[in-house]
């Protein structure tokens, strides 16, 4: 689903329709201009391995049952600036290897149970300026190999690396989008 309008008022599929796609492994929502929230029925697609929700500027929340997507390996939530929280059930995604929350500026915190993601290898949290403090549980992510962050969380990640994760690679990316010029 790309560059679409009209999804904000539409149910993409109910549970019965989701059962018609028992082998669906990937869904992409990109530039869906009026999509405010993903339908909970998406969580019935238990074979889903990759879910991308990118450039959906009105999305404010994810389904509470997101943790039912037991096969999910990649979750990309990039450039969803209105997304204010991740549901705690995200920590039940036992197969998740890659999480991209870059450019989600309204995220205030990460679930405290983040250490329950045993296979998470890469976390992209570049330009998540709303995140001020990282949960201590992140230091328990033994599979985490690479973090992409910005200068807002760099020192916290370097402290985690020094204390508990010496093999972690912390890549700091310069800010790409900045609206400071509006203040001048």
Automatic annotation (TrEMBL):
<protein>
    <submittedName>
        <fullName>Leucine rich repeat-like protein</fullName>
    </submittedName>
</protein>
<dbReference type="InterPro" id="IPR032675">
    <property type="entry name" value="LRR_dom_sf"/>
</dbReference>
<dbReference type="Pfam" id="PF00560">
    <property type="entry name" value="LRR_1"/>
</dbReference>
<dbReference type="InterPro" id="IPR001611">
    <property type="entry name" value="Leu-rich_rpt"/>
</dbReference>
């Amino acid at each position: 689903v790309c560059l679409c309008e009209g999804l904000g008022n539409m149910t993409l599929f109910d549970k019965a329709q989701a059962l018609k796609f028992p082998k669906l492994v990937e869904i992409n929502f990109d530039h869906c201009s009026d999509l405010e929230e993903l339908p909970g029925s998406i969580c019935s697609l238990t074979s889903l391995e990759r879910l991308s929700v990118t450039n959906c500027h009105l999305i404010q929340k994810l389904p509470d049952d997101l943790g039912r997507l037991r096969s999910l390996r990649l979750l990309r939530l990039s450039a969803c600036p209105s997304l204010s929280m991740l549901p705690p059930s995200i920590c039940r995604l036992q197969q998740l290897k890659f999480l991209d929350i870059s450019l989600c500026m309204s995220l205030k915190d990460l679930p405290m149970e983040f250490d329950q993601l045993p296979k998470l290898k890469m976390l992209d949290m570049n330009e998540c300026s709303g995140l001020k403090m990282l949960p201590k549980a992140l230091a328990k992510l033994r599979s985490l190999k690479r973090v992409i962050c910005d200068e807002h969380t760099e020192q916290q990640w370097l402290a985690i690396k020094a204390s508990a994760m010496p093999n972690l690679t912390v890549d700091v990316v310069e800010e790409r989008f900045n609206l400071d010029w509006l203040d001048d």
